[in-house]
# Entry
Amino acid sequence: MKATQNPPTAEVTPAVTLRGAALYISRHGWNQGTYYADQASPDGMSVQPNPTPPACAMGAIAIAAFGRRLPEDSFLLPEWVDYKNAEDALLAHLDMLYPPTGDDDFPHPEIGEWNDQPDRTAEQVITTLTTAATEWDTAHNRQAVPA
# Structure
């Protein structure tokens, strides 16, 4: 390869982003109620941003897509598409787990609602993210690409 050529890069699919989110939660922890759990300062008076905080499902998807916490201007960045495509793939999986009952306005729980259920566990979130990634790969005739 010549110095002026760009090295090949792996395609960022929703499955790659979802697996990255699952890996992030397995390494840094899981959170409910907010995208990220920040640590209190030693004096207990202020919150110190943690560069790798425990994250909810959507917070982990954001970190996998953007490489950092969900930026304020996220919808203006090119990674926004990766973030939204991974969200859509997870929602499609939740549709299969929680089929419409006919009584609901929405066919599935929102991701935050699903993540924040009191009996939810980190292991369930990791498994669901990974399973949603596998389903995306299968539906698109792709082989899994490690996160």
In short: The first helix runs from residue 14 to 28. Helices lie at 14-28, 57-66, 80-97, 111-115, 122-139.
